[in-house]
Write a structure and sequence with these properties.
Radius of gyration: 22 Å
CATH topology of the largest domain: Rossmann fold
Bound molecules: 6-O-phosphono-beta-D-fructofuranose
Number of domains: 2
Structural class: alpha/beta
Helix content: 25-40%
Strand content: 15-25%
Protein backbone atom coordinates (compact mmCIF):
# COMPACT_ATOMS: atom_id res chain seq x y z
CA UNK A 1 0.00 0.00 0.00
CA UNK A 2 1.38 3.43 -0.96
CA UNK A 3 1.54 6.50 1.27
CA UNK A 4 -1.92 7.82 2.35
CA UNK A 5 -3.14 10.46 -0.04
CA UNK A 6 -4.63 13.86 0.60
CA UNK A 7 -7.21 14.63 -2.04
CA UNK A 8 -9.42 17.59 -2.81
CA UNK A 9 -12.81 17.51 -4.47
CA UNK A 10 -14.91 20.23 -6.09
CA UNK A 11 -18.22 20.66 -7.90
CA UNK A 12 -18.44 23.06 -10.82
CA UNK A 13 -21.06 24.37 -13.27
CA UNK A 14 -24.81 23.86 -12.94
CA UNK A 15 -25.82 21.54 -10.12
CA UNK A 16 -27.40 18.13 -10.71
CA UNK A 17 -29.07 15.61 -8.43
CA UNK A 18 -26.43 13.12 -7.28
CA UNK A 19 -23.56 15.55 -6.59
CA UNK A 20 -23.75 14.84 -2.86
CA UNK A 21 -23.82 11.09 -3.43
CA UNK A 22 -20.60 11.37 -5.48
CA UNK A 23 -19.02 13.37 -2.64
CA UNK A 24 -20.10 10.69 -0.18
CA UNK A 25 -18.70 7.96 -2.44
CA UNK A 26 -15.34 9.73 -2.61
CA UNK A 27 -15.08 10.62 1.09
CA UNK A 28 -15.98 7.16 2.37
CA UNK A 29 -13.89 5.25 -0.19
CA UNK A 30 -10.90 7.49 0.59
CA UNK A 31 -11.44 7.12 4.34
CA UNK A 32 -11.42 3.32 3.97
CA UNK A 33 -7.93 3.65 2.54
CA UNK A 34 -6.78 5.98 5.30
CA UNK A 35 -6.74 9.00 2.96
CA UNK A 36 -7.87 12.54 3.75
CA UNK A 37 -10.48 14.32 1.62
CA UNK A 38 -10.92 18.07 1.47
CA UNK A 39 -13.75 19.96 -0.18
CA UNK A 40 -13.02 22.99 -2.32
CA UNK A 41 -16.10 25.17 -2.08
CA UNK A 42 -17.79 27.02 -4.95
CA UNK A 43 -15.83 25.52 -7.82
CA UNK A 44 -12.18 26.56 -7.46
CA UNK A 45 -12.75 29.31 -4.88
CA UNK A 46 -11.24 27.18 -2.08
CA UNK A 47 -7.97 26.79 -3.92
CA UNK A 48 -7.80 30.52 -4.50
CA UNK A 49 -8.92 31.56 -1.03
CA UNK A 50 -8.25 28.75 1.44
CA UNK A 51 -11.01 29.96 3.76
CA UNK A 52 -13.22 28.06 1.34
CA UNK A 53 -11.47 24.74 1.90
CA UNK A 54 -13.11 22.29 4.28
CA UNK A 55 -11.95 18.92 5.56
CA UNK A 56 -14.59 16.30 4.78
CA UNK A 57 -15.03 13.62 7.42
CA UNK A 58 -17.24 10.51 7.12
CA UNK A 59 -19.69 12.05 9.61
CA UNK A 60 -20.20 15.00 7.27
CA UNK A 61 -21.42 12.75 4.47
CA UNK A 62 -23.56 10.29 6.41
CA UNK A 63 -26.95 11.61 5.37
CA UNK A 64 -26.35 13.28 2.05
CA UNK A 65 -26.99 10.55 -0.56
CA UNK A 66 -30.59 11.63 -1.01
CA UNK A 67 -29.92 15.39 -0.87
CA UNK A 68 -30.19 17.51 -4.01
CA UNK A 69 -27.69 20.32 -4.69
CA UNK A 70 -24.11 20.14 -3.45
CA UNK A 71 -22.80 20.61 0.09
CA UNK A 72 -19.74 22.26 -1.48
CA UNK A 73 -21.66 24.85 -3.47
CA UNK A 74 -20.84 25.36 -7.11
CA UNK A 75 -19.88 28.19 -9.45
CA UNK A 76 -20.63 29.00 -13.05
CA UNK A 77 -18.10 31.79 -12.95
CA UNK A 78 -15.23 29.96 -11.26
CA UNK A 79 -12.87 29.56 -14.19
CA UNK A 80 -9.36 29.81 -12.60
CA UNK A 81 -7.99 31.02 -15.93
CA UNK A 82 -10.44 33.93 -16.00
CA UNK A 83 -11.04 34.40 -12.31
CA UNK A 84 -13.26 37.27 -11.18
CA UNK A 85 -11.76 39.16 -8.22
CA UNK A 86 -13.70 41.88 -6.42
CA UNK A 87 -11.72 45.12 -6.12
CA UNK A 88 -11.85 47.47 -3.11
CA UNK A 89 -13.96 49.91 -5.16
CA UNK A 90 -16.56 47.16 -5.79
CA UNK A 91 -15.61 46.57 -9.42
CA UNK A 92 -14.62 43.11 -10.64
CA UNK A 93 -11.25 42.41 -12.28
CA UNK A 94 -10.74 39.20 -14.25
CA UNK A 95 -7.32 37.63 -13.61
CA UNK A 96 -5.55 34.37 -14.51
CA UNK A 97 -5.43 32.69 -11.09
CA UNK A 98 -4.36 29.28 -12.37
CA UNK A 99 -0.71 29.56 -11.24
CA UNK A 100 -1.84 30.62 -7.80
CA UNK A 101 -4.18 27.63 -7.66
CA UNK A 102 -1.41 25.23 -8.65
CA UNK A 103 0.91 26.74 -6.01
CA UNK A 104 -1.79 26.46 -3.30
CA UNK A 105 -2.60 22.90 -4.34
CA UNK A 106 1.04 21.89 -3.91
CA UNK A 107 1.65 23.96 -0.78
CA UNK A 108 -1.33 22.32 0.93
CA UNK A 109 0.09 18.89 0.14
CA UNK A 110 -2.72 17.65 -2.08
CA UNK A 111 -2.00 14.61 -4.24
CA UNK A 112 -4.96 14.85 -6.58
CA UNK A 113 -8.09 16.76 -7.52
CA UNK A 114 -11.41 15.06 -8.14
CA UNK A 115 -13.37 17.45 -10.35
CA UNK A 116 -17.09 16.79 -10.67
CA UNK A 117 -18.57 18.66 -13.59
CA UNK A 118 -19.91 18.85 -17.10
CA UNK A 119 -18.09 19.73 -20.28
CA UNK A 120 -16.98 23.21 -19.12
CA UNK A 121 -15.66 22.05 -15.74
CA UNK A 122 -13.87 19.07 -17.27
CA UNK A 123 -12.19 21.36 -19.80
CA UNK A 124 -10.83 23.39 -16.87
CA UNK A 125 -9.71 20.21 -15.12
CA UNK A 126 -7.86 19.21 -18.28
CA UNK A 127 -6.08 22.60 -18.37
CA UNK A 128 -5.06 22.21 -14.71
CA UNK A 129 -3.80 18.70 -15.48
CA UNK A 130 -1.50 20.26 -18.09
CA UNK A 131 -0.22 22.60 -15.37
CA UNK A 132 0.76 19.65 -13.19
CA UNK A 133 -2.31 18.90 -11.06
CA UNK A 134 -3.23 15.20 -11.09
CA UNK A 135 -6.94 15.04 -11.89
CA UNK A 136 -9.79 12.55 -12.01
CA UNK A 137 -13.04 13.81 -13.59
CA UNK A 138 -16.57 12.75 -12.73
CA UNK A 139 -19.20 13.44 -15.42
CA UNK A 140 -22.20 15.47 -14.31
CA UNK A 141 -25.02 17.09 -16.26
CA UNK A 142 -28.74 16.63 -16.39
CA UNK A 143 -28.48 17.16 -20.16
CA UNK A 144 -26.59 13.84 -20.56
CA UNK A 145 -24.63 15.36 -23.44
CA UNK A 146 -21.12 14.26 -22.42
CA UNK A 147 -19.31 11.84 -24.70
CA UNK A 148 -17.42 8.79 -23.50
CA UNK A 149 -19.95 7.83 -20.82
CA UNK A 150 -23.19 6.01 -21.47
CA UNK A 151 -24.85 8.27 -18.95
CA UNK A 152 -24.08 11.21 -16.67
CA UNK A 153 -25.57 11.32 -13.19
CA UNK A 154 -28.48 13.71 -12.69
CA UNK A 155 -30.04 12.85 -16.02
CA UNK A 156 -32.30 10.08 -14.73
CA UNK A 157 -33.69 12.35 -12.01
CA UNK A 158 -34.34 15.18 -14.47
CA UNK A 159 -36.17 12.79 -16.81
CA UNK A 160 -38.21 11.50 -13.92
CA UNK A 161 -39.18 15.04 -12.83
CA UNK A 162 -40.12 16.00 -16.39
CA UNK A 163 -42.15 12.81 -16.93
CA UNK A 164 -44.05 13.41 -13.71
CA UNK A 165 -44.87 16.95 -14.85
CA UNK A 166 -46.02 15.76 -18.30
CA UNK A 167 -48.28 13.15 -16.67
CA UNK A 168 -49.92 15.89 -14.62
CA UNK A 169 -50.37 18.16 -17.62
CA UNK A 170 -52.28 15.46 -19.52
CA UNK A 171 -55.28 15.69 -17.21
CA UNK A 172 -55.64 19.46 -17.32
CA UNK A 173 -55.02 19.53 -21.09
CA UNK A 174 -57.78 16.96 -21.59
CA UNK A 175 -60.25 18.73 -19.29
CA UNK A 176 -59.85 22.01 -21.18
CA UNK A 177 -59.29 20.59 -24.68
CA UNK A 178 -56.05 22.54 -24.83
CA UNK A 179 -52.60 22.11 -26.24
CA UNK A 180 -49.92 22.20 -23.52
CA UNK A 181 -46.38 23.03 -24.62
CA UNK A 182 -43.81 21.88 -22.05
CA UNK A 183 -40.29 23.30 -22.26
CA UNK A 184 -37.60 21.10 -20.72
CA UNK A 185 -33.83 21.58 -20.39
CA UNK A 186 -31.49 20.32 -23.08
CA UNK A 187 -29.25 22.92 -24.60
CA UNK A 188 -27.63 21.08 -27.49
CA UNK A 189 -28.97 17.58 -26.92
CA UNK A 190 -32.58 16.50 -26.56
CA UNK A 191 -32.14 13.52 -24.24
CA UNK A 192 -34.49 14.84 -21.53
CA UNK A 193 -37.19 15.85 -24.03
CA UNK A 194 -37.00 12.53 -25.85
CA UNK A 195 -36.96 10.24 -22.82
CA UNK A 196 -39.53 12.17 -20.79
CA UNK A 197 -41.68 12.83 -23.87
CA UNK A 198 -41.90 9.17 -24.86
CA UNK A 199 -42.39 8.02 -21.26
CA UNK A 200 -45.02 10.71 -20.64
CA UNK A 201 -46.98 9.90 -23.85
CA UNK A 202 -46.36 13.22 -25.56
CA UNK A 203 -47.88 13.76 -29.00
CA UNK A 204 -45.05 15.95 -30.28
CA UNK A 205 -41.39 16.00 -29.16
CA UNK A 206 -39.00 18.63 -30.49
CA UNK A 207 -35.25 18.25 -30.07
CA UNK A 208 -32.21 20.41 -30.88
CA UNK A 209 -31.06 17.60 -33.19
CA UNK A 210 -34.11 17.84 -35.50
CA UNK A 211 -35.01 21.37 -36.68
CA UNK A 212 -38.80 21.40 -36.65
CA UNK A 213 -41.40 22.40 -39.18
CA UNK A 214 -44.27 24.10 -37.32
CA UNK A 215 -46.67 23.03 -40.10
CA UNK A 216 -45.91 19.38 -39.29
CA UNK A 217 -46.58 20.06 -35.60
CA UNK A 218 -49.93 21.69 -36.40
CA UNK A 219 -50.85 18.89 -38.82
CA UNK A 220 -50.29 16.39 -36.02
CA UNK A 221 -52.57 18.37 -33.67
CA UNK A 222 -55.29 18.62 -36.33
CA UNK A 223 -54.95 14.89 -37.01
CA UNK A 224 -55.43 14.09 -33.32
CA UNK A 225 -58.56 16.24 -33.29
CA UNK A 226 -59.98 14.24 -36.22
CA UNK A 227 -59.37 11.04 -34.26
CA UNK A 228 -61.26 12.47 -31.31
CA UNK A 229 -58.30 13.54 -29.16
CA UNK A 230 -59.18 17.15 -28.54
CA UNK A 231 -56.02 18.01 -26.60
CA UNK A 232 -52.30 17.56 -27.19
CA UNK A 233 -49.02 17.53 -25.32
CA UNK A 234 -45.97 19.05 -27.01
CA UNK A 235 -42.58 18.58 -25.30
CA UNK A 236 -39.81 20.86 -26.50
CA UNK A 237 -36.15 21.01 -25.51
CA UNK A 238 -34.98 24.55 -24.70
CA UNK A 239 -32.40 24.30 -27.51
CA UNK A 240 -34.84 23.19 -30.26
CA UNK A 241 -35.02 25.44 -33.30
CA UNK A 242 -37.34 25.83 -36.27
CA UNK A 243 -36.19 24.83 -39.74
CA UNK A 244 -33.90 27.60 -40.95
CA UNK A 245 -34.27 29.44 -37.62
CA UNK A 246 -32.26 30.00 -34.46
CA UNK A 247 -32.47 28.87 -30.83
CA UNK A 248 -34.60 31.09 -28.56
CA UNK A 249 -32.32 33.03 -26.22
CA UNK A 250 -32.84 35.30 -23.24
CA UNK A 251 -30.76 38.41 -23.73
CA UNK A 252 -27.21 38.71 -25.05
CA UNK A 253 -24.38 36.32 -24.18
CA UNK A 254 -22.10 37.19 -21.23
CA UNK A 255 -18.37 36.97 -22.05
CA UNK A 256 -17.57 34.02 -19.80
CA UNK A 257 -20.85 32.11 -20.02
CA UNK A 258 -23.03 30.28 -22.45
CA UNK A 259 -25.99 32.27 -23.69
CA UNK A 260 -29.15 31.74 -21.62
CA UNK A 261 -31.80 29.80 -23.49
CA UNK A 262 -35.54 30.11 -23.06
CA UNK A 263 -38.73 31.09 -24.82
CA UNK A 264 -39.06 28.44 -27.51
CA UNK A 265 -42.22 26.96 -25.92
CA UNK A 266 -43.95 30.35 -26.00
CA UNK A 267 -43.05 30.88 -29.66
CA UNK A 268 -44.39 27.44 -30.55
CA UNK A 269 -47.57 27.97 -28.50
CA UNK A 270 -48.29 31.29 -30.23
CA UNK A 271 -47.84 29.67 -33.65
CA UNK A 272 -50.04 26.69 -32.75
CA UNK A 273 -52.82 28.97 -31.51
CA UNK A 274 -52.66 31.10 -34.65
CA UNK A 275 -52.52 28.20 -37.07
CA UNK A 276 -54.94 25.71 -35.46
CA UNK A 277 -57.20 27.94 -33.40
CA UNK A 278 -56.60 25.62 -30.42
CA UNK A 279 -56.23 27.25 -27.04
CA UNK A 280 -52.62 26.66 -26.00
CA UNK A 281 -50.73 27.04 -22.73
CA UNK A 282 -47.05 26.94 -21.85
CA UNK A 283 -45.21 25.29 -18.98
CA UNK A 284 -41.48 25.92 -18.56
CA UNK A 285 -40.01 23.35 -16.16
CA UNK A 286 -36.64 25.10 -15.86
CA UNK A 287 -34.54 24.52 -12.78
CA UNK A 288 -37.11 22.23 -11.19
CA UNK A 289 -35.36 19.56 -13.25
CA UNK A 290 -32.07 20.21 -11.48
CA UNK A 291 -33.45 20.03 -7.96
CA UNK A 292 -34.72 17.47 -5.51
CA UNK A 293 -33.60 14.07 -4.35
CA UNK A 294 -31.79 11.91 -6.90
CA UNK A 295 -33.59 8.81 -8.14
CA UNK A 296 -32.37 5.42 -6.96
CA UNK A 297 -30.57 5.02 -10.30
CA UNK A 298 -28.74 8.34 -9.88
CA UNK A 299 -27.84 7.65 -6.25
CA UNK A 300 -26.26 4.35 -7.15
CA UNK A 301 -24.53 5.73 -10.24
CA UNK A 302 -23.14 8.65 -8.23
CA UNK A 303 -21.85 6.44 -5.43
CA UNK A 304 -20.28 4.14 -8.03
CA UNK A 305 -18.66 7.12 -9.78
CA UNK A 306 -17.31 8.51 -6.48
CA UNK A 307 -15.79 5.26 -5.33
CA UNK A 308 -14.42 4.48 -8.81
CA UNK A 309 -12.65 7.87 -8.82
CA UNK A 310 -10.81 6.86 -5.64
CA UNK A 311 -10.06 3.40 -7.05
CA UNK A 312 -8.56 4.93 -10.19
CA UNK A 313 -6.38 7.22 -8.09
CA UNK A 314 -5.14 4.27 -6.11
CA UNK A 315 -4.26 2.58 -9.40
CA UNK A 316 -2.11 5.61 -10.19
CA UNK A 317 -4.40 7.00 -12.90
CA UNK A 318 -4.68 10.70 -13.70
CA UNK A 319 -6.18 12.75 -16.54
CA UNK A 320 -9.09 10.34 -16.75
CA UNK A 321 -12.81 10.60 -16.24
CA UNK A 322 -14.95 7.87 -14.69
CA UNK A 323 -17.42 6.65 -17.30
CA UNK A 324 -20.40 4.36 -17.24
CA UNK A 325 -19.82 1.39 -19.56
CA UNK A 326 -22.39 -1.16 -18.34
CA UNK A 327 -21.94 -3.38 -16.47
CA UNK A 328 -18.87 -1.54 -15.28
CA UNK A 329 -17.40 1.90 -14.67
CA UNK A 330 -14.22 2.53 -16.60
CA UNK A 331 -11.57 5.24 -16.91
CA UNK A 332 -11.48 7.23 -20.15
CA UNK A 333 -9.13 10.10 -21.01
CA UNK A 334 -10.79 13.42 -20.07
CA UNK A 335 -9.81 14.63 -23.51
CA UNK A 336 -12.09 12.03 -25.10
CA UNK A 337 -15.07 13.25 -23.09
CA UNK A 338 -14.63 16.94 -23.81
CA UNK A 339 -13.78 16.58 -27.48
CA UNK A 340 -17.30 15.88 -28.67
CA UNK A 341 -20.85 16.58 -27.55
CA UNK A 342 -23.13 13.54 -27.28
CA UNK A 343 -26.23 14.38 -29.30
CA UNK A 344 -29.19 12.04 -29.65
CA UNK A 345 -28.37 9.75 -32.62
CA UNK A 346 -31.23 10.04 -35.09
CA UNK A 347 -31.25 6.29 -35.64
CA UNK A 348 -31.23 5.35 -31.96
CA UNK A 349 -33.86 3.00 -30.64
CA UNK A 350 -35.75 5.62 -28.63
CA UNK A 351 -36.17 7.79 -31.74
CA UNK A 352 -37.39 4.75 -33.67
CA UNK A 353 -39.76 3.95 -30.80
CA UNK A 354 -41.13 7.51 -30.80
CA UNK A 355 -41.77 7.34 -34.53
CA UNK A 356 -43.43 3.94 -34.32
CA UNK A 357 -45.72 5.24 -31.57
CA UNK A 358 -46.85 7.95 -33.98
CA UNK A 359 -45.15 10.76 -32.05
CA UNK A 360 -44.39 13.76 -34.28
CA UNK A 361 -40.74 14.83 -34.10
CA UNK A 362 -41.36 17.98 -36.11
CA UNK A 363 -39.88 16.62 -39.35
O1 LIG B 1 -26.77 21.83 -16.89
C1 LIG B 1 -27.13 22.27 -18.15
C2 LIG B 1 -28.29 23.18 -18.05
O2 LIG B 1 -29.23 22.60 -17.21
C3 LIG B 1 -28.85 23.52 -19.40
O3 LIG B 1 -29.79 22.64 -19.87
C4 LIG B 1 -29.38 24.91 -19.19
O4 LIG B 1 -29.38 25.64 -20.39
C5 LIG B 1 -28.40 25.48 -18.22
O5 LIG B 1 -27.93 24.41 -17.46
C6 LIG B 1 -28.98 26.54 -17.32
O6 LIG B 1 -27.96 27.07 -16.55
P1 LIG B 1 -28.12 28.25 -15.49
O7 LIG B 1 -28.49 27.59 -14.20
O8 LIG B 1 -26.79 28.85 -15.44
O9 LIG B 1 -29.19 29.14 -15.97
Amino acid sequence: MGKPKKIVINTGGGDAPGLNAVIRGVVLAAHEKGWETWGCKYGYRGLHNTEFLVKLTPEMVWHITDMGGTILGTANRGNPFEYPVKQPDGSVKVIDASDEIVVNFKKLGFDALIAIGGDGSLRLAQKLLKKGIPVIGVPKTIDNDLSATVMTFGFDTAVSTATDAIDKLHTTARSHERVMVVEVMGRYAGWIALNAGVSGSADVILLPEIPFDIEKVCAKIRGLEKQGQTYAIVVVAEGAKPLGGEMATLGPKDIDREVRLGGIAQRIATAIEQKTGKETRVMVLGHLQRGGAPTTFDRLLSLRFGSAAVRFLEEGKSGVMVALAPPTVKAVPIEEAIGKMKAVPLDCDTILTARSLGICLGD
